[in-house]
Every structure is written in structure tokens, then in C-alpha cells.
Amino acid sequence: MTLTPPPADSRQRMKALLMGLQDSICAGLEALDGEGRFREDSWERPEGGGGRSRVLREGRIFEQGGVNFSEVEGENLPPSILGQRPEAEGHRWFATGTSMVLHPRSPWLPTVHLNYRYFEAGPVWWFGGGADLTPYYPFLEDAQHFHATLKGACDSVDPGYYPVFKPWCDEYFFLKHRGETRGVGGIFYDYQEPGGALYRGQDPRGPAAVAGAGLTPPRDWEALHNLAAACGGAFLPSYVPIVERRQGLAWGDRERQFQLYRRGRYVEFNLVFDRGTIFGLQTNGRTESILMSLPPLVRWEYAYTPEAGSREALLTDLFTRPQDWLGDGSLLERCAPHGAVG
Amino acid sequence: MTLTPPPADSRQRMKALLMGLQDSICAGLEALDGEGRFREDSWERPEGGGGRSRVLREGRIFEQGGVNFSEVEGENLPPSILGQRPEAEGHRWFATGTSMVLHPRSPWLPTVHLNYRYFEAGPVWWFGGGADLTPYYPFLEDAQHFHATLKGACDSVDPGYYPVFKPWCDEYFFLKHRGETRGVGGIFYDYQEPGGALYRGQDPRGPAAVAGAGLTPPRDWEALHNLAAACGGAFLPSYVPIVERRQGLAWGDRERQFQLYRRGRYVEFNLVFDRGTIFGLQTNGRTESILMSLPPLVRWEYAYTPEAGSREALLTDLFTRPQDWLGDGSLLERCAPHGAVG
């Protein structure tokens, strides 16, 4: 495959974008938390590159939050990526990315994850990224707000993205052994370049078969750079209002125990399925930075089932299944009896 | 490869052995705990077979303990096993096993794991198994007792086993991304059959290069059955005296926090590396039974390092590295200043 080369300063520009994203997110989160401060560790990787990890612990809002920037290089990409990008075989590779996971204290506040990344390897280059929300208690308005904000960011570049990246996110953040999505999703994309398929997931029908078929946005380097900028910039507006709305709610041991239990699913996803975690561990990344996504305290309970009709059951039955958050009117009827609206 | 067929009643005999092992272990642990009782769930697997899972929660000694028996069948083994046993391709397979993980309440008591299993698939059959100990605080005598008991069980069948299975255990229960063994090890073996190599791990030199070279015990079906019986039967004598010796020691928040932190390593190993967990999830096993190995409460802490010279540092530096527990006299000198002897 012949790919138009990226701009001469592509690495610098993406690095600047992603470091700026890390800076703005950290500043916004410190302002929101009011007490917690990020501690920064810079690190170098023996094979080339390095990063700056920032972790906030025991804040007012956040029990733990990590925002990591990295820029790494190496001789050979791991097999999991070469399978998707055989043209990269035998070429030095470069990758830069910013990733974030926040674990709030309050069980009413959702965990949230974001990652935007860029690769170059010989004749090929591509963009990937996304953001997804994992509530512990169901609030329809929060899921809708998160999706609407991300959809707005995607649409600002091209309306063809969200209809594909939303179902792709549901597909990617799926725990097969539980039959559950990680949460209410968001957007996910990978291997984005001008010529290739918009959807490159596992489903042979593909999200494009469901929605957005035929709409393939132009994806030159500039458009994909703009997409990362728009979606990355949408993070604070997608999440901060949720925290502001729920932060005053009191909670008790029941909610805390359910939160700790559900955090177990987060660990299971990240260690068994997550592409970024596996890439990091396979490429001799900095373990502490890779695993800062894991929650500070987690509980497993054998054969737990939530009480029928409870909010915990609604979370499990509705908020860990793919839903058309922005279009399905029946969600309101299902959520309203549980105080899960507004 | 032509393999002598197993006895006509091989499946029944292994099933009886492994169910009997589950029974005797559960009875011994209930007697030891004095308060906790195992709850049993029987389950069936859609593709064939099933099992009985037993879980004890919130006992006096055990925060959680699971002892699982299963007997499952299927059309095709997963690729991870076919790579080691290409002769099984295209044949129905049968597997039976008993596995156990115990998470004690007291940080002075080690977590312990055991698994013995037997496979048949077309023209091939093999045995696997082992047991390993994961202390949270270092006690040299406990590591020595555990190893000496398992060595005795191996030696009762053939003295050629322990010198190979001990280093194989250190190799298998290794967290690459941490540069640590899971604990002080024990024994591990897999793919045992009459004709094949005694050692079938990943190290190209192999433990046999280190010790026991040339000693290849006869391994007909009966000998391997006897090995599983001897090692399985050695579990209670290998572990119960450790609990009896340490159960009266008081502990505080410092010890509890370190225990919860180290439990994180157990989760990382089981979800990223463990062959049994991956096999179970790949073959559509019962998720709750597979993941009952995960600790009930776990903590992660970014960039934690134990204080130099502390018992926590001794655990990390000495008890998560391969050691010759039964032969290296210098261990005593290193442990004694920390109250980690006797």
C-alpha cells in the first residue's frame, strides 16, 4: 500500500498536541478536585523514548487519577500490531500517546478513560484513540451528556465518524467472559489512515453495516490530527459537568461496596483485553505507568448477583449493554423508576 | 508419536482421585478454620461436562478460599495447547482437574495455590499440576517446610522429579513486567507422558541443565497417577502447620495494607499469565469458578517501594526471587535480622 507521507514535522506536531492535552486535562482536573495535585514522574525507556506520568492520589473528588504522556520508539512492532500492519515489518517504529484513567471516590461518579495515539512505522502511519465512561450507578443523563459531547466533537470534523466509532467502542470494551460492556462506552477508533477502512474491528458485518454506511470521511493526516484535537479537547466538557452534578450526593457502605465490586471488571478488562496495556507490557514499557489505570482498591465476590429491581441490577442489565444512548426513547422509561434520570 | 493407551478406566480413576482430593482438602480446611464452611455450586457446561465449585468466605482463618473440581469435554483444544500437542488436532478432548486458591485473613499467613489435572485427546494424554506458596511476610521456615513436604511427596514416587519441577515452578510463576516470581514457588509440571521430555518449559537450557540432568523417572500412566496422588495428598501437611504456627500473631494496618498491595500481584499473574485461567476463559468455562482465585480485596498503589531494611523489603527482594530454599545456607543469615526465621 502506498500512503501519502505525513507532514515533515508530524511527530513534533502530534507530540505538542498530546502534551498540551495532558497539560490541559491535568489543570482542569486539579481545578475540579480542589485539593489533589498531580505528581509527575519523567522516565526514559532503554530502547528509546520515554514519557511523563502524572498521578493524583487521595484528592477530594478523585481517589486516584493518572494522566500519562509517552513517546517511544523501537526496532520491531509486536506481532499483535504487525498482524494489522504487515507493511511495518522490519521498520523502526515511533509511537506517541496520551492516556488517562480517573477513579473517583464517590460511587455516584463514573470512572472515565481516554487515549489518543499516533504511530509511524516505515511506509505507514496511523491514528487511534477514544474515550469511554464506566458508571457504578446508572444516570441516563450522564451517559447521554458524555455521548452527545463526543458526538459533537466528531461531527465538528465529519459527521461520518460517530456512527461508526460509537458501536466500535461497544465492541472493543467488551468483557467476553462476563457478557458485558465495560460501561456505557463512548467512541473508539484505530488504524486510521487515508486509504484504509474506516472500521477495522472484529465484527465481520462491522458497525458500518449498522449505521453510517457509505459515509467515509476524508482522512488525510490533517483531518485525523484535527479529529484527535477535537475529541481530546472535548474530554473536560464531557466529564466535568457530570462530576459537578453528582459530587454533592452522599453515599453509604452499600454504594461503596458495589463500586469496589464493579471496579473488579475494570481490572479484568485492562489485564485480559486492553490493547494499550498489552502493547505497553509487550514493548517493555514502564510498568507503573501502564498499570496506573488499575483502581486503588478493588473487591471480588464469588457469584454475586444484585437484588432484582435495584439500581445495582439496572446498572448491570442496562448500563453494561450496548445502547443507543442518544436515540432510544425507551431508555427513559426504564431508568425513571430507579431515580436514574436527571 | 505413538503413546501407550491409558487404562480402560483412566477417566474414572482420575476423576475419583481428584474429587477425593477436593473432599479431603475441604474437610481439612474446614477443620482448620473452625468457623467457615464451604458452599458448593454444581454447574454444567453447554459443550460438555461440568463441575462442583466450593467456596468458603469470611471464615476465621480464611477471608476466602475456593476449591474447584471440573471435568470437561470439547471438540477442539484451544491453540495455546495444540501448539504443545499437535497430535490432538481434530480430536475430541477430555480434561479433569482440581484447583484451589486460599486467601487467608492474616497477613502473616501465605496465600497458597494447587492444581492437578489430566487430559486425553485422541492419541495423546498427559498429566499436569503443582502447588506454590505466596507469603506476604517473609518466614524462612515456612518456605522450607512447604518445599520439604512437596519434595518428600515427589521423592516418594521418584527422586528425579523435584529437581526439575522446582525450578520449572519458579519459571512459570514469574511476572515478567515486575521481574518477580509470584512467591516462594513449590513445584510445577505439565505435558507429562511416558515418551516426552520431563521438562517442557520455556527456558532453552531447561531446569534439567541446572539439576537432575540424566535422571528421567519412568513415567507410565500409573507412575504419573501416583505422582498426582502423592503431591495432592501432601497439600494439607505442607500448609496446615504453617497456619498453626502463625495464626496467633496479631497484625495491624501496616501489615494489612501491604498484604492488600501484594495481592495485586496475584491478580496480575492470574489475569495476564496463568495457563489455567486463560484455558478456562478460552473454553467457555464457568467464569465465577475460574475467577474465584482472585482475592476478595486488593489494592494497587502507584510507584510504591518498601522502606529499605524493612520486612516488606525483605519479602520483595528475597521471597519474590528464585531461591534454593532447601540448600542455601546464606538465606538464614539474610532472614534472621528481620525476625523472619522460626
Largest interface, counted by CB within 8 Å of the partner chain's CB: A-B, 30 and 30 residues
- Mean pLDDT of chain A, to the nearest integer, reads 94
- Please provide the ordered H/E string of secondary-structure elements of chain A: HEEEHEEEHHEEEHHHHHHEHH
- What is the helix fraction of residues of chain A, given as a range? 25-40%
Task: Classify the beta-strand content of chain A into a percent band.
Answer: 15-25%
Poorly predicted tracts of residues of chain A:
none
Main sheet summary of chain A: 7 strands, antiparallel
Quaternary form: homodimer
- What is the C-alpha radius of gyration of chain A, as a whole number of Å? 19 Å
Shape of chain A: globular
Q: Provide the structure class of chain A.
A: alpha+beta
| Sheet with the most strands: spatial strand order of chain A | 1-2-3-4-5-6-9
Distance between the termini of chain A: 50 Å
Number of helices of chain A: 12
Give the helices and strands, then pairings.
2 copies of one chain form a homodimer.
Chain A: H1 10-33, E1 38-44, E2 49-57, E3 62-74, H2 79-82, E4 93-104, E5 111-121, E6 124-134, H3 140-157, H4 162-172, E7 174-175, E8 180-181, E9 185-192, H5 207-210, H6 221-233, H7 235-246, H8 253-272, H9 275-282, H10 287-290, E10 297-299, H11 311-318, H12 330-335
Antiparallel strand pairs in A: 1-2, 2-3, 3-4, 4-5, 5-6, 6-9, 7-8
